[in-house]
């Protein structure tokens, strides 16, 4: 590791960058809503106009777990996880590949949690036979 880079300074820099990516994601969602109008709901039964994910193109009959998984894939989330991998590589002694693996595991755990919640709550919405 480069002796001129201190860990707290590097960690703070990447924390700031990830915060900026999150803010840009929110601003882009608001811009899409503004451009399409608040009454636009996207494709019939779709995710709505504020989402920048592939879930936008799903119909109303799509399974909630698929919708939850696709809503977790946006340009900004990929950018954020790339910054996470870069920050891990710079602040630890892990290789680039190991850092990407760690960021991928974090993304996988987050996606699995959201899909699990979608599966649980989709059961409550179904009518009893």
Task: Estimate the helix proportion, in percent.
Answer: 55-70%
Poorly predicted regions: none
Distance between termini?
62 Å
* N-to-C series of helices and strands: HHHH
Q: Number of helical segments?
A: 4
Strand-residue proportion: under 5%
Structural account:
The structure is a single chain. The chain has 129 residues and is mainly alpha-helical. 66% of the residues lie in helices and 0% in strands. It contains four helices and no strands. It has helices at residues 7-36, 64-71, 75-91, 96-125. The model has no long low-confidence stretch (mean pLDDT 74).
Keyphrases for this structure?
mainly alpha; 129 residues; 0% strand
């Amino acid at each position: 590791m480069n002796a001129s880079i201190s860990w707290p300074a590097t960690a703070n820099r990447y924390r700031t960058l990830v915060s900026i990516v999150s803010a840009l994601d929110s601003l882009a969602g608001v811009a899409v809503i503004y451009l399409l109008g608040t009454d636009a709901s996207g494709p019939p039964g779709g995710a709505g106009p504020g989402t920048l994910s592939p879930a936008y193109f799903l119909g109303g009959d799509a399974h909630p777990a698929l919708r939850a998984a696709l809503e977790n894939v946006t340009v900004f989330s990929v950018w954020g996880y790339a910054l996470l991998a870069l920050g891990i590589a710079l602040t630890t002694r892990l290789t680039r590949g190991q850092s990407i693996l760690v960021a991928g595991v974090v993304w996988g755990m987050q996606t699995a949690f959201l899909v699990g919640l979608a599966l649980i709550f989709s059961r409550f919405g179904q009518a009893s036979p």
